[in-house]
Q: What sequence folds into this?
């Protein structure tokens, strides 16, 4: 259905069901050129072939032959959607290596995020059950919401290893906190690590499902920040993401970096490591130097 051209757009042979007609100046009934918004869209309309009318919708070097599309605006709109989707999605083939990388990235994210939840809940003097609930909400909440929105089986229900990892992390940190003195701000380190790992994992999951790249990047952000939001709400505190130095911002920038590295065909593992470390380091630097976005305020 879709044909690609590597040379400047020219008229070409158009095959019908029972004959072939050369589309030259003698065959063209009329040709209209329209500029659709700011993009270089051209409609070479109504090429009469004797049997049917075909519409060639050309966007830059991509040519679309919409043989069976409805006539008029509906046909043009269907071609617009097809072209837009093709140019905005960057599907990844879920081969064993990619799935293995996704598995380990998600597992690391669950462990460190659950640890940050325990450290934060510990200063609220919650009991063991309360700490475990907070840890599970942080470690599994963001990925669960992502899977629900993508109409995908929730990852920790499909594989209980993630649930066990979150539970184990919570218990280990709960016991370790009784043996080692912990700073109240220490939870920010595993929180930054979880933010980075979940941002990459969420983006990767969305890309494997053929989600447009901008939405995929936001899925990474949501996967990274929602666990922290659940943690803070359960602890009756304002979410860190809404007032802390460069939290969701570095997550979104890192997700876009990850997509950009994949676009230039860098290895998925290397792209994930580079982007994840960038998010983690940027978050820690933002905390250290207290870098943040401008806050809302009324004119005095």
A:
């Amino acid at each position: 259905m879709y044909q690609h051209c590597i040379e400047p757009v020219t008229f070409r042979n158009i095959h019908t069901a029972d004959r072939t007609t050369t589309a030259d100046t003698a065959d063209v009934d009329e040709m209209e050129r329209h500029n659709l918004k700011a993009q270089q869209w051209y409609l070479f309309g109504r090429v009469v072939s004797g049997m049917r009318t075909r519409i060639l919708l050309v966007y830059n070097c991509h040519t679309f032959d919409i043989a069976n599309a409805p006539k008029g605006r509906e046909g043009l709109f269907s071609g617009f959607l097809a072209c837009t989707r093709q140019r905005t999605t960057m599907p990844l083939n879920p081969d064993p290596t990619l799935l293995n990388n996704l598995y380990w990235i998600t597992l690391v994210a669950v462990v460190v995020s659950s640890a940050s939840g325990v450290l934060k809940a510990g200063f609220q003097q919650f009991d063991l059950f309360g700490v475990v609930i907070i840890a599970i909400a942080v470690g599994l909440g963001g990925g669960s919401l992502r899977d629900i929105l993508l109409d995908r089986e929730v990852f920790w229900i499909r594989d209980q290893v993630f649930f066990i990892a979150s539970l184990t992390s919570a218990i280990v940190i709960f016991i370790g906190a009784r043996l080692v003195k912990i700073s109240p701000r220490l939870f920010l380190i595993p929180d930054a690590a979880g933010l980075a790992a979940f941002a990459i994992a969420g983006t990767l999951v969305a890309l494997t499902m053929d989600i447009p790249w901008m939405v995929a990047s936001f899925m990474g952000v949501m996967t990274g920040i929602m666990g922290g939001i659940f943690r803070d709400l359960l602890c009756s505190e304002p979410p860190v993401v809404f007032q802390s130095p460069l939290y969701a911002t570095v997550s979104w920038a890192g997700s876009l970096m990850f997509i950009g590295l994949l676009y230039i065909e860098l290895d998925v593992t290397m792209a994930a490591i580079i982007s994840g470390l960038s998010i983690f380091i940027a978050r820690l630097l933002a905390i250290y130097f207290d870098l943040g976005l401008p806050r809302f305020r009324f004119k005095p």
Notes: The first helix runs from residue 73 to 88. The chain has two domains: 2-88, 96-289. The first strand starts at residue 2 and ends at 4.
